[in-house]
Design brief:
Layout lengths: L3 E5 L5 H15 L4 E5 L13 E5 L13 H12 L3 E8 L7 H10 L3 E2 L4 E4 L4 H16 L1
Parallel strand pairs: 1-2, 1-3, 3-4, 4-5, 4-6
Helix pairs in contact: 1-4
Length: 142
Amino acid sequence: MEKIAVIYWSGTGNTEMMAKYVAEGAKAAGAEADVFDVSNFSQEKLSEYGRYALGCPAMGAEELEDSEFQPFYDAVKPSLAGKKVALFGSYGWGGGEWMNPWKADAEAAGLVLVAEPLAIENTPDDAGKASCQELGKTLATA
């Protein structure tokens, strides 16, 4: 089973919580999964992993966080073409609309999304936790 890197950016801690739950789900499915804040993951580490979960909350006008996560994502996107990837993040308003252009961008870049991206409003409740864990399981077994 390929190792999974769960890479996220979080402002309030909600997306960080989601990242940990995604990793829990992957591990429950038998995968090795490591969780990284985007500032602690370098492009050079990509080759150590075969699958990736990318997490970023909605920011500003329903977009990815633009000082750390967006530059990271833009830099690694070509290397992730053909790789199995899951997208996730939290939002506070806007209905999770930022996920639609992110999904379209990822697909256009050739990322193989293993499931519909997961967007959770605010802090994940028990159902949100279960959804994150299921996303991790899907990424591990897809």
